[in-house]
Amino acid sequence: MAPPSSANKVAKLAQKGKGKKVRFQGGALFPLILTVVVLLFGGLIVYARQTRPGPGEGAPTSNDHWHAAIGFYTCDDKGLQVLPNLTGALEETDPATGNLSNTNFVRTGIHSHADGVMHWHPSSSGKATGTNAKLKVFLDNYGVSLSNTKLTFPASQGGKTFEEGKTVCKIDGVEKKASLKLWVWDNYATVKTADPSVYTANMGDVRIKTDGMVFMIAFVPDDVKPKPPDAAFNLKELGAADGSGGAAATTTVVGGTGASTIPGTATTLSGTATTVSAKTSTSVVGEPSATSTTVAAKSATTTTGG
Description:
Strands 1, 2, 3, 4, 10, 11 and 12 form a seven-stranded mixed sheet that branches. Strands 5-6-7 form a three-stranded antiparallel sheet. The chain has five helices and 15 strands. It is α+β, with helices and mostly antiparallel strands. It is extended, with a radius of gyration of 31 Å. The longest helix has 23 residues, at about 30-50. It has two domains: about 65-240, no CATH class; about 250-305, no CATH class.
C-alpha cells in the first residue's frame, strides 16, 4: 500500500489538471496542416473520378485511322519461327445485298490486309475507340485466342496451338521451356534502339494508345531476345499505301480536255468531267475516315478497301 504522502501528491496533481485544455505540441499549426492534407487528397480523388475516361472515350476516335504492326514469334519442335501474317481483310460482302457480311468488322472497324498491320479505324459503335481500343479486339475479329498460357489460331489461320507446359520447343535440337509473352514498342521508329515493354498476363487488354505502335506475341524461351515483326520496319510506307499518312497514291481520270490526278487510291477512271471533294463526306465502304472522291461521269464511283 502506497504511503499517505504519495497519495496526497497524486490527488494534488489531479486537482491541478482539472479544467485545463489539452493542446498539441505544435499549437494550432498541426491540425491545420492535417485538415489541408485531407481536403487536398479528397479533392484529388474526386477530380480523378470525374476526369477518368469512360468506356470507349478518348483516342482513337471513329475519325482516326491508325496503324500498328503485329506479328507472332513462336517455338515448337521445329525451332523458332515467325508465323505468317493473318490473312483476310474481313471486307466480304453479301452477294444478295452488297453489304459487308463480317459482323465483327462492321461492329468494330478493325482489320488487316495480310500485311502484318492492324488497321485501326474504329466504327462509331465505340467498341474499338478510346479505352476499348485493345489488342483483343483485333485478335477476336480473326478468331485468335490468347490467354496467359495459351495461344490458339483458328483453322482459317493455320489452326496451330502453343501452350505452356504442353507445346514442345526445341532450339538446335535441345528442348527448352517456352512461355507466352507480349512485346510492345510504343513507336515503330524505336524498335532498333529501345527495349519493349513485356506483358505476361492479360495481354489481350493491352491498349492501342497511339498511332505507330508495334506488337509481337511470342511463345519462346525467356532468354530469347525480343524480335519486332517485319512490318515494323516499313509501317510508315504500309500506312501511306492504305491512304492515311505519308504520300498518297494518285487516281488518274481520263476524259474531257485531258488527264487529272486525284489524291487517293491508284485507280484509273474514264469519264468526261471530274469533281474532287477532298476530306469531306465519306463514300468509302469500311473506311469512315477516308478521303471522299466523287467522280462526275457516266456513273458515280465508290471505293472499297482500306
